[in-house]
Predict the structure.
Amino acid sequence: VGLNNKEKLLIKLFLQHANEQISHEVINDHLWSFEEEPSDTSLRTYIKNLRKILGKDRIVSIKRYGYKFA
């Protein structure tokens, strides 16, 4: 399965914190470097792409907080 660099970083973060709630802040710190501006739109796209691969039920949205990988 072809994943871009940010998707790889995101799935690695999810696997390291399986069944834990991960805040948007932690995700942004993990995905974007200091000189990059975090993008909510891009994050949603990465999540959507990973859900297509892993299944919709694996990545749970936690409203106004972040995500959880189950």
In short: The helical segments are 5-16, 24-31, 40-54. Strands lie at 21-23, 59-62, 66-69. The radius of gyration is 11 Å.
